Amino acid sequence: MTKRIVILGGGTGGTLTANRLRRELSTHDATITVVDQDDHHIYQPGLLFVPFGLTAPADIVKLRHQQLHHGIDFVEQPIERVDIDAQVVHLGDGRQLPYDLLVIASGAVLAPEETEGLVFGDTVHTFYDLAGSTALAEKLATFSGGRLVVNVVDMPIKCPVAPLEFCFLADWYFTERGIRDRVELIFATPLDAAFTKPVAAERLAHLLAEKGVAMVTEFNTGEVDGAGGKLVAYDGREQPFDLAVVVPMHAGAAYVGRSPGLGDELNFVPTDPHTLQSTVRPNIFVIGDATTVPASKAGSVTHFEGEVLVENILRFLADRPLDASYDGHANCFIETGFGKALLIDFNYDTEPLPGHYPSRIGMPLLKESRMNHLGKLMFQWFYWHTLLPARHVPGIESPMPHGGKELPADEIHQEAHV
User: What does the alpha-carbon distance between residue 415 and residue 406 come to, in Å, rounded to a whole number?
Assistant: First the structure.
């Protein structure tokens, strides 16, 4: 009997999952339908570059349906809700899509309305969506000096290092314009450090200081006063600004909240961190930013999850035990300005460490280099032509490699006794 697979979301996770499944399953085995509210696939890492004129909006947007392999149906409609008991997706136009297996790949959405006074305008901007990134490019082009505060309202957010990258690129941008001495850069974060992992946090904090970016930690934004030019934390502390670049709170897709039993209080879908099967129904799987797994909400995570996710969908359809091998693997290029970048690679158990990726001969980890910057630029080609089409890349596997890392002495001792 032909199985009905419905994938909600045509972004990174939904596209690579659909393409992998179509390669593994014949049209007799399964129908595959991808649903999204629009047909515009945005290369989200490119949003960071738009404000600084390093890329154009038109260069990071393609049609969603053109990224899907032949034999995959694309439905362009908002999702109203999912009935997980009846196994039906209700669409905005009243249509219903019954499913045998559902994949939630609808990512995370910005929720500025959750923060009092957060309205984007002349002095308050974001670069976390295309409209905001484009507007910020216009603002920065005419910014002649003053206090620029980059603020993360709350975690989790997509690409946790992007706000740091913005600070580094802003330092470069204003230096190139000859006005760096007239711009005060501040990074205000709810975390108690520059990053969530100690070794990387120390390195990134050092880079911020080196580039003259002040860091304000444990700043939990409760209000944004655009007219008064200040951010106000819940503890009463204030950060005055001439220009605020704010990363708002994130949540799961709104339809999740309209679907009884599907999501948590933030509309993310409870997910087994190793199998990527939802904990709400066995025939629902989750990938990417829509999950609750304790990994970064980043494109690389989605890429590495995809391998395990598709294997487990095939196992589920064949009534076989699931593979619990996803280890939280994530990596990320961190732009540090002036044509250089860092690379970090980590998983649930191992924090970002020095060394090389993916082996002892590879790109340097936790070290600025021109090679890493070029790697970040090349990733855009890799994204469209390899990652989304779900092509296998030898050496770039789901499990985090250990071979090139400089492991602490205690971890080396533990591995020697495994």
Answer: 13
> What is the DSSP pairing of strand 284-286 with strand 221-225?
unpaired
Amino acid at 97: L
69 and 158 Cβ atoms separated by less than 8 Å: no
CATH number at residue 224: 3.50.50.60
Close Cβ partners of 25 (under 8 Å, ≥ 6 residues apart): 32, 314
Contact 333, 354 (CB under 8 A): no
Q: Where do runs of H (alpha helix) occur along 190-336?
A: 198-210, 254-257, 299-317
Task: Point out which residues pair with 246 in neighbouring strands.
Answer: 151
Chain segment 19-76, per-residue pLDDT in tens: 999 999 999 999 999 999 999 999 999 999 999 999 999 999 999 999 999 999 999 9
pLDDT-above-90 percentage for the chain: 93
Within 10 Å of residue 320's Cβ, how many Cβ atoms? 10
Q: Which of 224, 249, 274 is the last residue of a domain?
A: 249
pLDDT, residue 410, reads: 47
Range of the domain at 346: 330-416
Inter-residue contact 107 to 11 (CB < 8 Å): yes
pLDDT tens string 202-225: 999 999 999 999 999 999 999 999
